[in-house]
């Protein structure tokens, strides 16, 4: 059997520390992966003169599976989002952001288990029609939704729900105002829902969704929505379970996938052994599920749960006093 090769982008800021922690845990769990390390972000800009070197793109394309730490896109003209560029380059149309409650995080809610599925390549993040007038007084951007893109992401959501035994999907939109773009998305979502009578299908306007997530989050199971709304909603959901340090993300296409920590590179604490590595460890669990290793995924998930629940060597954002290496060691010992 051929050894699975994984492209690893350690990233910027706290990225190297938390990604290295995830690699240790994968190895300890018995994953026989071969790792090919690649540069992107500020590290790549300094070493290679570009944010996304061609050799990195080639490795991603060759290995098909990537584990990625947070990347920094320089602020200013001439730089586009590295994450958006990767999603468009490899047609990673589905962004999957699960949030799950862990006792011990001191989050406001318990028993949260929500998956946000966000269309990843269209909408306001497509980069189309961005224009600023010569006098700097007007700016425009275009949102483009296609029937193909909407059907693809909604079908992905229903297939995931069937596969994972989920009961309910909420299509989130703003079709009452954005009658063209959001209207098309909602129309397609209703059509796709008809094919899955075993799943309860609901729909909700995005502003009400945000309010309902704060007031009664347990009513949600799987949320499917467009790019901009999904970006905002998935971060809101992370706040229900303890913050972005507890939220992983998967970017999935037809034959390629990138799994990542969804928080920023936190340069203010880089190299200080303070970061919580849970987000990228949970992303590696998503990667294991994607690769067909649910037993190893569950083993790691259980170890993280035990560490956080016990408060043994947890990081500051979880109410503890320890750092990345201590937290990682606590997980390794349980594995």
Write the layout of secondary structure elements.
Layout: E1 5-9, H1 15-28, E2 34-38, H2 42-48, H3 54-63, E3 65-68, H4 82-89, E4 94-100, E5 113-119, E6 131-132, E7 139-140, H5 147-164, E8 168-173, H6 181-193, E9 200-205, H7 206-215, E10 222-225, H8 227-240, E11 248-252, E12 257-261, H9 278-290, H10 294-310, H11 324-334
Determine the strand fraction and express it as a percent band.
15-25%
Quaternary state of this entry equals single chain
- Measured between the Cα atoms of the first and last residue, the distance is 25 Å
CATH topology title of the largest domain? Isopropylmalate Dehydrogenase
Order of helices and strands: EHEHHEHEEEEHEHEHEHEEHHH
Mean pLDDT: 95
Radius of gyration, whole Å: 20 Å
Write the CATH homologous superfamily of the largest domain.
Answer: Isopropylmalate Dehydrogenase
Helix content: 40-55%
Instruction: Give the strand tally.
Output: 12
What does this structure look like?
This is Isocitrate dehydrogenase. Residues 5-331 form the Isopropylmalate dehydrogenase-like domain. One of its GO terms (molecular function) is magnesium ion binding. Its EC number is 1.1.1.41. With 335 residues, the chain is an alpha/beta fold. It has two domains: 1-102 and 242-335, 3-Layer(aba) Sandwich (Isopropylmalate Dehydrogenase), CATH 3.40.718.10; 121-240, Response regulator (Rossmann fold). The chain contains eleven helices and twelve strands. It has helices at residues 15-28, 42-48, 54-63, 82-89, 147-164, 181-193, 206-215, 227-240, 278-290, 294-310, 324-334, and strands at 5-9, 34-38, 65-68, 94-100, 113-119, 131-132, 139-140, 168-173, 200-205, 222-225, 248-252, 257-261. The protein has a ten-stranded mixed sheet, sandwiched between helices. The chain is globular.
């Amino acid at each position: 059997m051929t050894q699975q090769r994984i492209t690893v982008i350690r990233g910027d800021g706290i990225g190297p520390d938390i990604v290295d922690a995830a690699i240790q845990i994968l190895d300890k769990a018995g994953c026989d992966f071969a790792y090919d390390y690649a540069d992107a972000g500020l590290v790549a800009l300094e070493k290679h003169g570009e944010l996304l070197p061609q050799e990195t793109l080639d490795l991603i394309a060759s290995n098909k599976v990537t584990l990625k730490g947070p990347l920094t896109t320089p602020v200013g003209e001439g730089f586009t989002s590295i994450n958006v560029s990767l999603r468009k380059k490899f047609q990673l149309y589905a962004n999957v952001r699960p949030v799950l409650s862990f006792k011990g995080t001191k989050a406001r809610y318990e028993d949260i288990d929500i998956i946000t599925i966000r269309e990843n390549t269209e909408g306001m993040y497509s980069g189309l029609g961005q224009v600023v007038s010569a006098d700097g007084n007007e700016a425009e951007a275009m949102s483009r939704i296609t029937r193909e893109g909407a059907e693809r992401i909604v079908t992905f959501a229903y297939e995931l729900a069937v596969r994972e035994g989920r009961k309910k999907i909420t299509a989130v939109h703003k079709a009452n105002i954005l009658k063209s773009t959001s209207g098309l998305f909602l129309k397609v979502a209703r059509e796709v829902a008809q094919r899955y009578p075993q799943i309860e299908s609901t729909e909700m306007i995005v502003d009400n969704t945000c309010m309902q997530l704060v007031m009664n989050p347990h009513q949600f199971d799987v949320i499917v929505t467009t790019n901009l709304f999904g970006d905002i909603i998935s971060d809101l959901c992370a706040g229900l379970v303890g913050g972005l340090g507890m939220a992983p993300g998967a970017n999935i296409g037809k034959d390629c996938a990138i799994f990542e920590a969804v928080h920023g590179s936190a340069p203010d604490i880089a190299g200080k052994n303070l970061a919580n590595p849970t987000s990228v460890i949970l992303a590696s669990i998503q990667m294991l599920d994607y690769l067909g290793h649910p037993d190893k995924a569950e083993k790691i998930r259980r170890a993280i749960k035990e560490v956080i629940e016990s408060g043994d060597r947890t990081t500051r954002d979880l109410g503890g006093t320890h750092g990345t290496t201590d937290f990682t060691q606590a997980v390794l010992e349980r594995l």
